[in-house]
Amino acid sequence: MNHQLAPSSLWRRALRERSFCVGAGFMLLLALIAFFAPALAPHNPNDQDLLAVLLPPFWVDGGTMDYPLGTDGLGQCVLSRLLYGTRVVVTIAVAAPIGAAAIGCTLALLAGYQGGWLDWMITRFVDLWLSFPAVLLALILMVALSPGLQNVILAIVFVDWARFCRVVRADVLVIRRREYVAAARISGARTLGVIWREIVPGIVPTLIALMALEISIAVVAESILSFAGMSVGSQTPTWGAMISDGLNSMYSSPYPLLLPVFCMILTVLAATFMGQGLRQATDVRSLERNGAA
Amino acid sequence: MAWRMTCQVMWRIPMLVLISLIVFVILRGIPVDPVNMLMPPGASTEDIARMSHQLGLDRPVIVQFLLWLQDAARGDFGTSIQTGTPVLAMVLEALPTTLQLLVYGFVIGLVFGLGSGLLSFRLRGTRYEHLIMAVNGIMTAIPDYLWAIILIVTVGVGLQWLPFIGAIDPGLQAPVVTGFSLIDSLLDGNLRAFFSVISHLTLPALTFGLCIATPIARVLHSSLTEVYHEDYIQAARLRGVGEGPLLMRHALRNAALPTVSLIGVQASVIIGGTLLIESIFGLPGIGALMLRALGAFDLQTIQALALTYAITVQVVNMFTEFAMHKLNPGLRSQS
After folding, report:
1. CA–CA distances in Å: residue A249 to residues A122, A257, B196
2. pLDDT tens, B277-323?
3. Is pLDDT of A3 > 50?
4. Which of B213, B171, B212, B203 minimizes the C-alpha distance to B283?
5. What is the reported pLDDT for B155?
6. Any A CB within 8 A of B324 CB
């Protein structure tokens, strides 16, 4: 593993991976859509047109250009809802990995560097955390917290920090034994200084790969929560809620179901490609070994 | 051996208690007051206070938890506020459906996973290997509940091959002996019910199977590739062992280790997947029960089901650890 990976060289190596470029390009597009959703969407995503319920998309007989991708069971514009739905996706894709990385890394550095009983406690706790279905824990948390975007992020971070902690801790254990760390300690650097200047740069590749992986996991987790009706409130359009609504009107019109499913799959694929590209660029093997990938 | 098995079980008990405690504490943060939901709308403040005292809700959380634990140890998980029936009975009634789904899905996943893993390895060096692995990569990215929807739309609605709603045809009923409808209908000799149950279970199990097949195939493929670089494979080949026996007897046994360990590590993810699959396919398992309980703030049921899930994961972990020990003599001598 290359521990002197400068950010600029990592960036260049990532750009050489085709899968990274495709995935990151799509995610960038998604972010732009999310930002310009009010300008792009032909309708208010929550406006109901009860005279135009379950219209098909424009390329099918009976569809109109008024509702380019048709309407759902409540007469809401599918395209507008899809466009606005990207806002939740992008927010989750940015916030959840950062939050989970912050908590997971802090605990991993504490556990891996200090060792002893603290390490034992944190490791057991991570094992415990990972032995409980993440979806379930997130759902239970969402029952206790009230619906809302912040709480969804909180729930996903609360569930997913453990994976970060386990993988990063394994890295810290390896780096801690390196000679340059010992040298820094002998030369009188304080503990925090050693952690910050000697250990943290070493875990950056793993961290980047993990965060890229977390994007797709978090996006899927949010869609599961909103599919179960336990995510952001019903006023905010999400793809998961659209899929759940579409399932109910599947027999009358499959489009309100298939279109968000298609968007969801594309997004997860893009996030996965981005993660794979980054993993190849950073060359992190420890992910597979620890069952995170 | 027996001693080790006992230890295996013993050290998992504190984990289960701790998971229950975490869930318990989280559920106390609920925005709805559970007492208010039990009382009629016009109940007086004294009545409410008396009720919360009766339920022990006016005591510290840790005391409440210990009381719950005490009851739970005796098999009393309280009553559900949705139905008014004991929670344990509800869970035990729903559990067989989930276990049937898990086992059936696991068999399908193993067949597909081992099959495509071995196939892609057999075709190594050709473009089919890359093709299989590329398809595998795409399939891995699709989350389980979307698989459920894709299968419903294609196989269920499009081709109309298999039913996708409910556990059995509306006109039929599986007899109840053990609770496992597949076993019961066979015991009863009711073949129509058996085929109805198994056809209703096939799509959910296929969904579940596909989700475990993809990682199994990937890990098996990469560990087989790794194993074939080892010297003992070369040695066996020089001794004149044919390619077939070489793969089956020498390589697969070692390559199976990472695969089994993957199943153990991923057990919680795999089991969590049944939650949505069940409610999408309308199977009356513990996942569907859980989602209903979550929607109705049915705390006792949520608490008991969380424990059930935790136990299921631990049991799967014990199986995989057992399999690891059987496959790898090195692990046996260590312990």
Report:
1. 47, 8, 26
2. 988 888 888 998 999 898 888 888 999 999 999 999 998 888 888 88
3. no
4. B203
5. 85
6. no
Of A131, A145, A291, the CB nearest to B310: A131
Residue of B nearest to A276 (CA): B137
Q: Find out whether A93 and A223 touch, Cβ atoms under 8 Å.
A: no
- Say if the Cβ atoms of B313 and A131 lie within 8 Å: yes
Global pTM? 0.85
The stretch A57-73 carries a mean pLDDT of 79
> Measured between alpha carbons, how far is residue B41 from residues B12, B37, B249 in Å?
43, 9, 70
Which residues, other chains included, contact A102 with Cβ-Cβ below 8 Å and sequence gap of 6+?
Answer: none
Which of A139, A245, A269 is the best substitution to test chain B (most B C-beta atoms within 10 A)?
A139
d(CA B288, CA A243) in angstroms, rounded, equals 18
Give the Cα separation of B333 and B335 in Å (integer). 6
Q: Judged by CB atoms within 8 Å, which residues 249-308 of B form the interface with A?
A: 261-262, 265-269, 271-273, 275-276, 279-280, 290-291, 294-295, 297, 302, 306
User: Does pLDDT of A48 surpass 70?
Assistant: yes
8 Å CB contact of A269 and B297: no
> Taking CA atoms, what residue in A is nearest to B263?
A291
Decide if B59 contacts B68 (C-beta within 8 A). Answer: no
- Contact list in A for residue B30 (CB cut-off 8 A) is 143-144
Record: contact A135-B137, CB cut-off 8 A: no
- Which chain B residue is nearest to residue A260, measuring alpha carbons? B146
Q: Tens of pLDDT along B159-187?
A: 878 887 777 777 777 777 777 777 777 77
For this complex, say whether ipTM is above 0.90: no
Structure tokens at A284: 């992190």
Burial class (CB in 10 A: 0-12, 13-18, 19+), A26: middle
